[in-house]
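Subject: Protein entry, chain in single-letter code together with its fold tokens

Category: Structural biology, sequence-to-fold work with a learned token vocabulary.

Notation: Tokens come from a learned vocabulary of local backbone shapes, not from coordinates.

Start of record: The labelled sequence and token lines come straight after this line.
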Amino acid sequence: MTSTSNPRDLRAELETLTTEAFRPELAGIDQLPTLDIARLMNGEDASVPAAVASRLPQIAAAIDAVAERMARGGRLVYAGAGTAGRLGVLDASECPPTFNTEPGQVVGLIAGGPDAMVTSVEGAEDSRDLARADLEALALTPADTVVGVSASGRTPYAIGAVEHARERGALTVGLSCNRDSALAAAAEHGIEIVVGPELLTGSTRLKAGTAQKLVLNMLSTITMIRLGKTYGNLMVDVRASNDKLRARSRRIVALATGASDDDIERALTEAGGEVKTAILVLLADVDGPTATGLLSGAGGHLRTALKAAGA
């Protein structure tokens, strides 16, 4: 699994990447007062949203394509190495509690497996074959989407994941932070967020990592909005798995319906604790089983279910 690339060739390749560029004007940063370094970092970070904004059309096109496939039962799979892989795993892991996604519906793959979340796994990012093996275990279908994530846009693991997904007919997205990247070229939807050289040369957990986090937030969140996982800006599919989320569930029902606490408790009991169903119980004045049936017929979209109920 260790890379066989010539170190000189790799060094030359890295020197062409914006994310690896050296900034001589920052060579004395370690001698600055802490507040000045903090101001420099904050100024660097402030440039990231504008870089994302310049690629919103490409991001939106990818989201629409992902949502269309997920509406047919497809999965959203992130694949990356290092920081990029960890960001994908983070985004995937937050979908079940936030949107009540099914196990395996949103998946994060990181080169080297779970151990790579907290420690470096030598050579894992350099293997296209490892990505193929990880994806083979998922038995991809044309309804699935694979998002390769790599700041450099050259990481073999991310490129290998996208190439394998295309061979299986799945939708592919390549997210990188360099122009004309191999990853974007390999994917149907290439998204290149060029944030420029980092404060610390080559430390792509900084601006590049922030940019990738912003885009992944959009991919998952807006896809879930398109799938009917929200009602307005309320998380009506939230999974009440702890005290905070149970309290949030009650607040969401209150915000959506304006009902009294007693009516909210009654509706949630009728709905088996499902927020979306409880809202429909209250707004359409139906019982729990009826609300469940209406939502099933509406593909989980609360607004469609409300129209069907004449509410």
